Amino acid sequence: MIHHIVYGGSRIKVFKLEIPESFHDEYYHLLNFIALALVLYFIYLILEFRKVIFKFSKNSVFTQENSQRLRKVGRGLVIYGSIILCITIILGLAIDGSNSGINANSNPAFSIGYIFGYTIGASISKVLPIFVVALFVQFISFLVVKGNVLQEENDLTI
Questions:
Q1: Which of 42, 50, 145, 157 has the most beta carbons within 10 angstroms of its beta carbon?
Q2: What is the pLDDT of residue 107?
Q3: Contacts for 131 with CB less than 8 Å, ≥ 6 apart
Q4: For residues 33 and 15, what is the distance between their CA atoms, to the nearest angstrom?
Q5: Cα separation of 100 and 118, whole Å?
Q6: Is 59 exposed, middle or buried (0-12, 13-18, 19+ CB in 10 A)?
Q7: Quick one: pLDDT band at residue 118, thresholds 50, 70, 90?
Q8: Which residue has the higher pLDDT, 20 or 36?
Q9: What pLDDT is recorded for position 105?
Q10: DSSP code string of the chain
């Protein structure tokens, strides 16, 4: 991004999509800024998850704090994946819609439907692992809550 701004270099892929030269530089810079903000948000989620792992290593597993942090990370991953999914679909429709290799003589409804379906399918396939990890982290958070309840009951038993 810095190389493109300073030296006017070639454009790199943003959200795994090749941005054509016909797009204005302002849009390209905005997309790069959004990508940078999402990377920083992802780093924040990793640091939150790291705090939970450190608590696990200190044998402090079933605590309310761990559960809340895991829930925050899971929800954050869902938000992160949703934003990437929306941006990828919008960019995919804007880029592939104008650069599609579909014959101009074909039915317009068919070509629009095909481009729309292909773009959504490709976008979901790119973001699906993020949603699976988010679901797994949410499930672990649920288990930590149940473990916390059982541990509190066990501590009260003589």
A1: 145
A2: 62
A3: 77, 78, 81
A4: 12
A5: 11
A6: exposed
A7: confident
A8: 36
A9: 53
A10: -HHHHHH--PPPPBTTB---TTS-HHHHHHHHHHHHHHHHHHHHHHHHHHHHHHHHHTT--S-HHHHHHHHHHHHHHHHHHHHHHHHHHHHHHHHHHHS--S-TTS-HHHHHHHHHHHHHHHHHHHHHHHHHHHHHHHHHHHHHHHHHHHHHHHHH--
CA 99 vs. chain centroid, Å, equals 26
The alpha carbon of residue 32 and the mean position of all alpha carbons in its chain are separated, in whole angstroms, by: 15
Judge if pTM exceeds 0.85: no
- What distance in Å separates the CA atoms of residue 72 and residue 132, rounded to the nearest whole number? 15
Question: Across-strand partners of 17?
Answer: 14
Look up tokens 């940078």; give the residue.
36
Residue predicted with more confidence, 85 or 56: 85
Give the side-chain half-sphere CA count within 13 A for 29.
Answer: 10
The set of long-range contacts for 17-25, using a CB threshold of 8 Å and a minimum separation of 24, is 17/88, 17/91, 17/92, 17/95, 18/95, 19/91, 19/95, 20/95, 20/98, 20/99
As a whole number of angstroms, the distance between CA 116 and CA 94 comes to: 10
Mean pLDDT for 108-121 is 78
For the segment 136-157, the average pLDDT, to the nearest whole number, is 86
